Amino acid sequence: MKAYIFPGQGSQFVGMGKDLYESNNKAKELFEQANEILGFRISDEMFGGTDEGLRATRITQPAVFLHSVIKAICIENFKPEMVAGHSLGEFSALVANGSLNFSDGLQLVYKRAMAMQKACELNPSTMAAVLGLEDAKVEEICASITNEIVVAANYNCPGQLVISGSINGVNIACEKLKEAGAKRALLLPVGGAFHSPLMEPARIELEAAIAATEFKTPICPVYQNVTTTAVTDPSEIQKNLIKQLTAPVKWTKSILQMVADGATLFTEVGPGNVLQGLVKKIHREAETAAG
To answer: Which of 67, 86, 195, 283 is catalytic?
Structure first.
């Protein structure tokens, strides 16, 4: 079965999507439509901006979403049999499988970005990548830090887990994790503690927007970050999407479940190839490709 996977924030690079804009009329039309919806020329930020500018959450999230979705639309005979997206990428996956239309998906992503940015400013926070420890040990150490907020946020693949929380909490956790044998515990250049309780203000704000958006029955299941299982019911998709901001990204379990359900080829659609690498680490026999 053909599975399509969509990357999240952090996969962006200056120039992404420019080739599509210049070579495909449908892509150009969608980029211009996005510029109009957002009220500024995000295509200019993507094609000729700066690395620093593209890292701003309000730019990064709609930019990655646009690149992924437009690339998927331009794939000849695009017929996904299952989809999944890593964090932000879940919104791209939901447009790809028909749960959301292009305009609604873009508007939700932009509202998500702005809500998360406000939450980050309200509570300065961060994330860190932890390599070489079992998930259970990382969870145990995070739970032992009771005077700060720090939680497991992204279960990327065996031996690679991202933690999220207050700046002091993450720093304390990093020291404890290295003492426990982690190969690395490295702070990430992100704006805040995504997928942690510190995103609760953003979750509340986004909940109203998601609830007011029409979700349709998709053409194929989406394996959502919160549940890791195949979902096709529009109301359940909405509920899981609302929970996603403060819940961990269970990517390892999602990929394993997709394999168990018959996925044989994982095609990454969007900037970069990080997800292909993670899939290989999760399931060596899986076949991967770039969209």
So the answer is: 195
This model's pTM is above 0.90: yes
Instruction: Note whether residue 192 is domain-resident.
Output: no
The region that residue 204 occupies, defined by phi over 0 for left and psi between -120 and 50 for alpha, beta otherwise, is alpha
| Cβ neighbours of 169 (radius 10 Å) | 24
- Residue 74 structure tokens: 């331009």
Contacts of 17 (CB under 8 A, 6+ apart): 27, 31, 43, 46, 47, 63, 66, 67, 70, 71
Ramachandran angles phi, psi of 228, nearest 5°: 70, 5
The string of pLDDT tens digits covering residues 24-52 is: 999 999 999 999 999 999 999 999 989 98
What are 138's two structure tokens?
């990382």
Domain count, the chain: 2
Q: Is 87 a catalytic residue?
A: yes
Q: What DSSP state is assigned to residue 249?
A: B
Query: Which value, to the nearest 10 degrees, does the dihedral of the CA atoms of residues 253, 255, 257, 261 take?
Result: 180
pLDDT tens track for 176-221 = 999 999 999 999 988 899 999 999 999 999 999 999 999 999 999 9
C-alpha distances (whole Å) from 231 to each of 113, 240, 251, 272, 278 are 24, 10, 15, 26, 22
Check 87, 92, 166, 196 and give the catalytic one. Answer: 87
85 lies in the same domain as 208:
yes
Asked if the structure places residue 95 within a domain, the reply is: yes
Of 68, 88, 62, the residue nearest 80 (C-alpha): 68
Look up 67 and say whether it is catalytic: no
Domain CATH code at residue 131? 3.30.70.250
Do residue 169 and residue 29 come from a single domain? no
Closest CA to 31 of 6, 64, 67: 67
Last residue of a domain, one of 134, 168, 187: 187
Alpha-carbon distance of 223 to 218, in angstroms, equals 12
